[in-house]
Design brief:
Blueprint lengths: L1 E12 L2 E13 L3 E2 L7 E2 L1 E5 L5 H8 L4 E3 L2 E5 L8 E6 L7 H9 L4 E5 L5 H14 L8 H8 L6 E8 L2 E11 L2 E9 L8 H16 L3 E7 L4 H4 L7 E4 L5 E4 L3
Parallel strand pairs: 12-13
Antiparallel strand pairs: 1-2, 2-5, 3-4, 5-7, 6-7, 8-13, 8-14, 9-10, 10-11, 11-12, 14-15
Amino acid sequence: MLNTYAILFHMETAGNTDRLNFSLPLFRGDPHPCPYLPGHTADNELTLVPRIDGAVYERLMDLGFRRSGDMLYRPACEGCSECVPLRVPVTRFKPSRSQRRVRRRNQDVVVETGSPISSDEKWRIYKAYLSHQHDGTMSDRREDFEQFLYNSPTKTEEMVYRIGRRIVGVGIVDVCPTCLSSVYFYFDPTQARRSLGVFSTLMEIQVCHERNIPYWYAGFYIRACGSMSYKADFRPYELLGPDGVWRTTTTD
């Protein structure tokens, strides 16, 4: 089904309000088994964007959208609202004792930030990561890997984690006016003891600090899914309500 509706954007620049009006065409996806909650059926509203301004994309995230490659989507599951956008207010974030231990454990890791570039080494790590972390539902083909992570319609950066010359992890982040949005992180499963997923989150929040970016966007928080509920370990955090308002939360 194709639905079209208009979203009114209000952006303030130098004390003035600029209004951007446009219609966003939305396609309703086909219902499919939920990848996060067994026994649930998932559905999404979808749209394709060849290019999108960071400020516009940030506003869409504040309406519940995320991106995968050049596709924007938001959950539209009947009878379920478990996928809740989560963000961390950077200046208020306080790492926990265990998070500080993870940071000390990875003092030998060097982080390089730059433009996203696919490579054979990164693809090999990605394939190993999917085999270790997922159930086989995600494709590890080279073209799908690049479409998913290296085809972005907005300003995107890649954070490469190295020990010596060896890549041990790669993070993809979108850069918006007032937030850094975490797209995906994959790592060498032989380095699992390092908790690189936690470490990458701490490094992304550190980038926000260094650039005076007030929010780190973590994507969807799903309380009943272990692979998605960890995001609430970074506190305090804010959840996006069904009324479009971000509200601070400190406990589950």
